[in-house]
Amino acid sequence: MKRFVNNERGLSLLELLAAVTISFLIVGVMYNVFMSGMKTYQRIGIENELRSEADYMMAIVLNRLYEFAPDGMDTTTTTNTQLVFVNNKQKAIDTRVGLVEEEETETKSFSLALANDELQIDGQPISSERLKIISNQSSFSYTCVRQEGNICRSGVVTIVLAVQDSTHNSPNSPLYIRPFTLKTEFGF
């Protein structure tokens, strides 16, 4: 086959059909690769937004916990879906001796719970509308280092959150985002 047509007859119908078919195949492959890349780009963007929102929620939890300044965790009401922190001690100066002592005070509580696919602080949801927490795959746990009666005074809390995008949670959706798990540990 000649590389260039140098006569006035042009291309035969068979050559023209072959060229058009090859062109359509190349354009079809390019379109599919482009669309696949766009869907992957959108999926990664959505996953990053979900991670950011989950990190923001955990930052809210840690900030509120820091503001509350708990003395420990109530082990009688703490479950795998609820953590209850208590504040029942206050430092006071004994003026007779001049020493700082801890005195028992009125017990205040701070609860963190997983309910209705939401993360709640003292019954108030802090979850965003876009982020769905899968309650049956999420959990709270703790390891107590120092316990006094029903109060764990020191330990490590582990929070496992299974999150999913609420708008792309159907497996039939073209931008389906599978649930993923985030794990946070902190000491108190």
TrEMBL record:
It comes from the Bacteria. Keywords: Competence, Membrane, Transmembrane, Transmembrane helix. GO terms for biological process: establishment of competence for transformation. GO terms for cellular component: cell surface. Its main location: other. The chain crosses the membrane at residues 12-34. It is found in: Cell surface. This is Tfp pilus assembly protein. It comes from Anoxybacteroides voinovskiense. The lineage of its organism: Bacteria, Bacillati, Bacillota, Bacilli, Bacillales.
